[in-house]
Amino acid sequence: MYSRWVERLTDVSISGFLWAFRIVIVLVVVVGSALTLTQGKYSLATWIDLALNGLSLGSIYALIALGYTMVYGILGMINFAHGEIFMAGAFGGYFAAVGLAQAGLLNLNPLTAVLSVVIMIAVAMAVSTTLAVLVERIAYRPLRKAPRLIPLIAAIGASFFLQYTFRGLFGPGIYAYPAVDVLGEAVPLSFIRLRWVDVLVVVSAFVMMAGLYLFVMRTKVGTAIRAVSEDKDIAALMGIDVNRAIVTTFAVGAAMAGAAGVLYALMFRQVFFFSGFIPGIKAFTAAVLGGIGNVPGAMLGGLFLGQAESIGPTLFLDGFGVPSPNQLRDVIAFTMLVLVLVFRPSGILGERVTEHKA
Amino acid sequence: MTGDANGTGGDVILRLEDVNTYYGRIHALQGIDLEVQRGEIVTLIGANGAGKTTALKTVSGLLHPPMGKIIFDGADVTHVAAHELVRAGIGHVPEGRRIFARLTVLENLHMGGFTRSVAERSEDLERALTLFPRLRERLSQKGGSLSGGEQQMLAIGRALMSRPRLLLLDEPSLGLSPILVQQIFELIKEINSQGMTILLVEQNALQALNVAHRGYVLQTGKIILSDTASGLAANADVRRAYLGEI
Ligand SMILES: Nc1ncnc2c1ncn2[C@@H]1O[C@H](COP(=O)(O)OP(=O)(O)O)[C@@H](O)[C@H]1O
Ligand SMILES: [Mg+2]
Question: Could you give the 3-state DSSP secondary structure of residue A131?
Fold first, then answer.
């Protein structure tokens, strides 16, 4: 009797709390935007700047998010070590850049600079892929048949293991990423402010995403990966080597993350053992936003999160007189993660996850 | 000419010797001996839970027996993985069809031909679509949008895409309307007449014995009877237990 009352009360207070939460969020967004815009403190050019910055950031999140979503699609687990795979790629690119700088190629002329970046990305992809394949083999494959919580814990363990291995190898300090001078220069356009690094990030991210999408949707191996995601036993009855499909998924996701590691480091000019954590969680947020398990969803979720993070703080919070709202971009990302998990766990693009479970 | 019930001699394509399969501690197959000869339709009948599906999964490599031996086409395949057995020539149409719901019909068929080269695949595709013209109109539709009967046809067509030499069919008539059931059994005969060896699992024992050459009766993990199909259909015990006669 008593416990039933407690239950009812908790139910009521939880749903009341959720409603209050929704109302507060909607108010902040609507009132905040209205206040900011009516104050007219920011010019159109500023908003365009923010949107372009959000586009660069968002395409990087999208690249990383693909790895989370594909691994979830095929194994039903969140690969928490994916942020570290991204960080490892950034380190790989760092050492390639140092080598290229010593050889005098990194900033010799724009052509060698571009080639250097290509080499850095290739090295990063190789490092990330190797590492991810090892993690799958050592930490996840033996737990394939274990209850769902177990591989999740293994993933958290793998994440810590990689962080502290890199800390052990390269120390706790922050490495300044070698500067590729051309990338810092402005693109000669009169109407927008844009650096070459943004062009590089957005173009290469979109090319890779398009490539991945074609790979998944149009090739035999990509179709096999989708088949394995749906039903492993039946995929095996088709003659598909399920383990190989899973390894391929990890490898492809890691290659994207490795490339993203270099792009991110070229934007923010630093790398250290913990630098995969925040981008990793944000890309995870992006994957959840897009509906985890859904490939186009991860891309959209990443781009959306990039904009929300870049424009959101200024648009929603500045109007309330919050000082330097851009410091709060992480808060925006994590608020969105909580919002999606609470109100729409299937993500923006919806039902795929539940269909997957059925 | 079909082989005799004890399966001596002849051209044996599949032989199970004292096969034991477990789910954890559940002893689902308890020493199965079974033989299929090239060109035959052999049926495995038995009540729900007897172990029919388990037997097929053991043959196709989804389950591995810790005891016993499986010989396919003269080679010991007891420990060969499922995806390799497809290349060896075993096709398995699983219970409940298990179409890839989010893949298109064409992609489902292509996955069936995963082990084949692209050139061979288009030829096999044409064959499958000749056998199941209904699928041709639905090639770009998602597998999940097909009706039960169409899904069964897709499941069979998909398995044929690998050009198996032995086709395992697990309750192909389950859940279909009487007309479709009739069609499926006609089809089984047709595929067999083109030279396909078939191991057919059915709860619909009467129909199965009608198309099969020989049959085995499975009860709680053991083979309790084996005979020619007509012999089994005439057997009083079989008629009482599986053909609904009192
Ligand atoms: N995945 C499983 N885990 C545990 N027991 C199972 C599993 N699948 C089947 N069984 C058991 O094995 C026995 C045989 O099942 P099955 O081969 O599916 O029978 P049938 O196909 O003849 O209906 C049954 O007792 C069933 O409960
Ligand atoms: Mg069954």
Answer: helix
Structural domains of chain B, count:
1
Partners of A240 on chain B (C-beta within 8 Å) are 83, 111, 114
**What confidence category does residue A45 fall into, taking pLDDT thresholds of 50, 70 and 90?**
confident
CA of B60 to the centre of ligand 2 (A): 14
The amino acid that residue B56 corresponds to is L
Mean pLDDT of A23-30: 83
Does residue B245 lie in a domain region? no
- Type and span of the H or E element at A271: strand A270-271
In contact, B97 and B43? CB cutoff 8 Å: no
pLDDT grade for A47, boundaries at 50, 70 and 90: confident
Least trusted range by pLDDT, from A18-22, A55-59, A120-124, B14-18: A18-22
Q: Is residue B222 part of a domain?
A: yes
Interface of B with A (CB under 8 A): 60-62, 81-83, 86-87, 91-92, 94, 98, 100-103, 107, 110-112, 114-115, 158-159, 162
**pLDDT level of residue A355 (50, 70, 90 thresholds):** very low
In a domain, B182, yes or no: yes
Nearest residue to B187 via CA among B242, B123, B134: B134
Q: How far apart are the first and last CA of chain B?
A: 33
Looking at this predicted complex, what is its ipTM? 0.93
pLDDT at residue A173 tops 80: yes
* Of B113, B119, B68, the residue nearest B86 (C-alpha): B113
A314 CA distance to ligand 2 middle (Å): 61
Q: Which residues of A194-204 are buried (b: 16+ CB within 10 A; e: fewer)?
A: bbbbbebbbeb
DSSP chain B: -PPPTT--SS-EEEEEEEEEEEETTEEEEEEEEEEEETT-EEEEE--TTSSHHHHHHHHHTSS--SEEEEEETTEE-TT--HHHHHHHTEEEE-TT----TTSBHHHHHHHHTTTS-HHHHHHHHHHHHHH-HHHHTTTTSBGGGS-HHHHHHHHHHHHHTT--SEEEEE-TTTT--HHHHHHHHHHHHHHHHTT-EEEEEES-HHHHHHH-SEEEEEETTEEEEEEEHHHHHH-HHHHHHHS---
What are the tokens at A204? 């290469």
Give me chain A's average pLDDT, please: 89
- Going by alpha carbons, the residue nearest to atom 14 of ligand 1 is B51
The ligand 1 atom at the shortest distance from the C-alpha of residue B47 is: 22
How is residue B41 written in tokens?
């339709």
Residue B4 lies in a domain: no
CATH code (residue B83): 3.40.50.300
pLDDT score, position A1: 56
Interval between CA A168 and ligand 2 midpoint (Å)? 54
Two tokens, residue B188 = 């089984």
A-B C-beta contacts closer than 8 Å: 66
pLDDT score of A204? 95
Closest Cβ–Cβ partner in A220, A227, A241 for B100: A227
Band (B9; pLDDT cuts 50, 70, 90): low
Tens digit of each residue's pLDDT (9 = 90 or more) over B159-186: 999 999 999 999 999 989 999 999 999 9
User: By residue range, what is the domain housing residue B88?
Assistant: 12-92+159-230
pTM: 0.90
Query: For residue A352, what pLDDT is reported?
Result: 47
